[in-house]
Amino acid sequence: MQRPQHAEADRGLVFNIQKFSLHDGSGIRTLVFLKGCPLRCAWCSNPEGQSCAPQLAYDERKCIGRPACGDACRRACPVDAIAARQDGPDGKVEIDLDRCTACGECVLVCPSRALERLGESMTVEEVLEVVEQDSAFYARSGGGLTLSGGEPLTQAAFAARLLEAAQARGIDTAVETTGYAHWSELERVCRHANQIFYDLKSMDPERHREGTGVENGRILENLRRLCEVFPALPVVVRTPVVPGFNDSPAAIRAIAGFVGELPRPVGYELLPYHRFGEAKYRELGRDYPLAEVQSPSEEQMAELSRVADEARRSSA
């Protein structure tokens, strides 16, 4: 598995720290997003988390045009990756992402913040300094730190060290994971987690590969083993319901049935597909794979939830 640049126990590659989340663990959470993911889910809402290296994002809507800013970004680029856009007279720029090294020099001089460097090498202490700014909210709400991505297990050594240090300071810890990693890496991280949110997208190996780029055998085996080795660790299995991929009653029944047969009880949630990450693809110079797909209706989600509950009861 490819590792992010600078990945080690005391330093990791972080692409976002989001405060005041209410949906990724108990209470009010601070989400720390780590770079790198072995999956390529067509519906990924954090495409900037897939790459194991820093990236440059360009929001053309914010660009005020080269005449207005004095051509600052083009002049700052050391590899000539920025040029005037060829399809319009507005002075906006275009980025040659193949040439760009994501050094961030252009970001420093952009007056409208149309450019952003995604991926910062941070130490455990630097991350916790940000996380602890909201420690009062954690104490009142039962919240804490949640690691997400990307896939946190891609930086397992750093993730484990960060979670261990957070727990030592009395901060509740949670991890969102695809489960696609060597068991030793999952085990290492779980030792310092108070809760695990575990994605399970399809029971069909080939279907899973078509939608995510990898088969599901390792994911399923790791989930079984997780339940056996950590019998007291709260686990919530999550399935993103994606139209055309796994939104049939048969697909959800198969997943929920597997969850019901795990070595011990776990939670199970269905999450409706959304398009919140669509703009990020454009900023990274990529096409959005599911541009024509709409979110499932409330009625469909309610029916699939009923199917899932029934399947878990019958397999328990």
Primary descriptors:
Alpha-Beta Plaits, alpha/beta, globular, TIM Barrel, 316 residues
Description:
This protein has 12 helices and 12 strands. The chain has 316 residues and is α/β, with parallel strands linked by helices. Helix 7 links the parallel strand 9 and strand 10. The protein is globular and about 65 Å long. It starts with 10 loop residues before the first strand and ends with a helix.
What's the topology here?
Layout: E1 11-21, E2 29-34, E3 55-58, H1 66-69, H2 72-76, E4 82-84, E5 93-95, H3 105-109, E6 115-118, E7 120-123, H4 124-131, H5 135-141, E8 144-149, H6 156-168, E9 172-177, H7 183-190, E10 195-199, H8 205-212, H9 217-229, E11 235-241, H10 249-260, E12 267-272, H11 278-283, H12 298-315
Parallel strand pairs: 2-8, 8-9, 9-10, 10-11, 11-12
Antiparallel strand pairs: 1-2, 1-7, 3-6, 4-5
Helix pairs in contact: 4-6, 6-7, 7-9, 10-12
CATH superfamily of the largest domain: Aldolase class I
Order of helices and strands: EEEHHEEHEEHHEHEHEHHEHEHH
The neighbouring-strand order within the major sheet is 7-1-2-8-9-10-11-12
Shape by Cα distribution: globular
Q: Please state the structural category.
A: alpha/beta
Would you give the CATH topology of the largest domain? TIM Barrel
Question: What characterizes the major β-sheet?
Answer: 8 strands, mixed
Strand content: 15-25%
How many E-type strands?
Answer: 12
- What is the CATH architecture descriptor of the largest domain? Alpha-Beta Barrel
Quote the distance from N terminus to C terminus: 35 Å
Query: What average pLDDT do the residues reach?
Result: 94
What count of structural domains? 2
